[in-house]
Amino acid sequence: MIILHHLEKSQSIRILWLLEELNVPYEVKLYDRDPKTRLAPAEYKAISPLGTAPVITDGDVTLAETNAIIDYVCDKHDDGRLRPAPGTPDRADYLFWFHASQGSFQPLLTNFFVMKAMTARAPFFLRPAAKALVGGLDKAFFGPRLAALMGEIEKTLGKQAWFAGERMTAADIVMGYSMEVAAHRAGMDEARFPNAHRWLAKMREVPSYQRALEKDGKGTILL
Ligand SMILES: N[C@@H](CCC(=O)N[C@@H](CS)C(=O)NCC(=O)O)C(=O)O
Fold first, then answer.
1. What is the mean pLDDT of residues 164-186?
2. Domain at 22, CATH number
3. Which of 80, 145, 154, 170 is most exposed by smallest CB count within 10 Å?
């Protein structure tokens, strides 16, 4: 049976959502973050090959990396509903958003927040220099890339209900966490991104997502 090692307030929420959506028999083990570092605790890092969440175990298999886990679970338990098949009209959008989420969107968000947190924790005499460096990187690198992604998100969700067409797919499940983070912490506000917020409202109503949040019990975003 699949065991999801679920780290509170983390990207692991997507896997909980996926398992609920597919009605997969699974067990969930809950882990709190280290109260001081806010990273995964040592017992979690001992299971996960990269020390990161999410990670699942399934018999002899231990698997980390969100999208690898999603594909693994879908290979075993999805009949094609959550992954548009090759050659179908929704396939290109599906591939783009499934991969843009973990290949571009989430890494940009995470790296930017880590740098901001480092600035806040820098010794006070280094803080102005650290702030200037992070501000410069935001202007030259993170800002334009995030703006381009959010622009694409808004455009896509203006022409269709979900990221890959008119039905929910694994691309929505993987984008969900990053969309919450972007809306809460990266300036993806409702006034400028109404389509994104319509999608967020719809996602929050999905019964399997609500069940996942209930099992998680902590709320998704590390604020
Ligand atoms: N590319 C990885 C990223 C995983 C990742 O950075 N996870 C964060 C949770 S949001 C984590 O493990 N943080 C705790 C830590 O690094 O100890 C994936 O998709 O699984």
1. 97
2. 3.40.30.10
3. 80
Three-class SS of 42-88: HHHHCCCCCCCCCEEEECCEEEECHHHHHHHHHHHHCCCCCCCCCCC
66 lines ligand 1 (CB under 6 A): yes
Q: Is residue 223 part of a domain?
A: no
CATH code where residue 110 lies? 1.20.1050.10
120 and 193 part of one domain: yes
Taking the CA of residue 222 as reference, the ligand 1 atom at the shortest distance is 10
Q: Tell me if 102 CB under 6 Å of ligand 1.
A: yes
Give the range of the structural domain holding residue 29, as residue numbers without chain letter.
2-83+210-216
Q: What is the mean pLDDT of the chain?
A: 95
Cα 89 to middle of ligand 1, angstroms: 32
Distance in Å, CA 11 to ligand 1 centroid: 7
- Residue pair 143/36 in contact (Cβ under 8 Å)? The answer is no
What pLDDT score does 223 carry?
A: 57
